[in-house]
Structures are given as structure tokens and as C-alpha cells.
Design goal:
Elements lengths: L1 H30 L8 H22 L4 H7 L8 E2 L9 H21 L5 H18 L7 E2 H25 L11 H16 L2 H9 L2
Parallel strand pairs: 1-2
Length: 209
Amino acid sequence: MSDIRNWGLIGYEMLSVLIPFFITYVILYAVFKKDKMRNKKRNLIWNFIFAVYIFGVLHFTGAGTLYNIKMYGLKINPNEINLIPFSGNIDIVEYVLNIILFIPLGFLIPLIWTSWDKWKSLIIGSYFSILIELSQLFNTRCTDIDDFILNTLGAIVGYCLYKMLNRVQKKDIKTSYLEIEPFIFICAMFLGRFFIFNEFGLAKILYKF
């Protein structure tokens, strides 16, 4: 029974991310409805994989939500903020995990949005990491500049892996899209979870406490 409840929470969290994704996708698709956008099926599949990945990152990092603000208030604990790079205890495993976490982002971005270069991948990695770190001001997790640096590095590593693989396969499938599309998707999914996902509210119902 406990496992079912846990899966219920995860399913609820996933829907709070995927529903905004599909709404955004339909709106963006409507923009290109008159265009002959090639590989529509491929585009949808990879965008969905991207959305599931974004959900995984938000879930794993425990990004803050509106309901965290209601629970903890807007009081920011200075002890939970680190703005000096690599000034604390060095945890190699945690550092490596932070890099690995954002490697798929750096790989998927140029794969889906084919004209994106390494600098745009760096910007999107930084943007997503900043969203997560700022949201963690609203819950009990630490907002750490180390995470920001390592996440951004992970996005660059992912981009380099994509370029290496692309050279081997010599493939470059072009798709039609808005230049800021990745930002729109990430923002929509982040805000969906921020406003919809009430973890403790559902937990109270499921576990009756």
C-alpha cells in the first residue's frame, strides 16, 4: 500500500510537469501548422523525452514550489546559502552527480533544436540551474553556487558528447522551431510544477496525517 501511495505522489508530480509541456507543445505546434515541419513524429518523441528528463531533474533536486512558501514562509536562512565557490567540504561523489545530472540536457538541446551551439547550451544549462537553485530558497534544501557551476559544466559536457557522436554518424536532421523554444518549454514545466505540485497536501490525504 505504501508503494502505491508513493507512486501516486510521483504520478501527481509528473502530471504537474507533463501537462504544461503538452499544452505548450500544442500551442507551439499551432504556430507552425501552416509550415511543412519535417519529422513531426521524431520531434514529438524527442520533445517528450526532454520533458520526462526535465521532470526527473526537478524531482531529483527537489525544486521548491508555491506550497513550500506557504509551509515555510518567505524567510531565507543564510546558513542554507553558499555564494563562495568550492568553499565547503569537497564531496567528489556529489560533484560528479551534479555534472552527470545535466549531461542529458546538453545532449538533448542540440539534438532537438539543431542550430543551437555550445554557447546557447551553456546559457540554457545556467538558466535551468538558476531556476532550481532559486526555488530551493523556498524549501529546506541548500542553494549552492557549486551546484550551479557543476550543472552548467555538465550541460557543456553533454553538448561535447553530442558533437562527437554527430561527427561519427554524420547526421544533422533539421527541424523547424522557434529560437527560444527550449526556454519556453523549461519555463512552462518548471512553473507547472511550482504552482500545481502540492506534495504535502496530497501526502496528508494519502497517508492520513
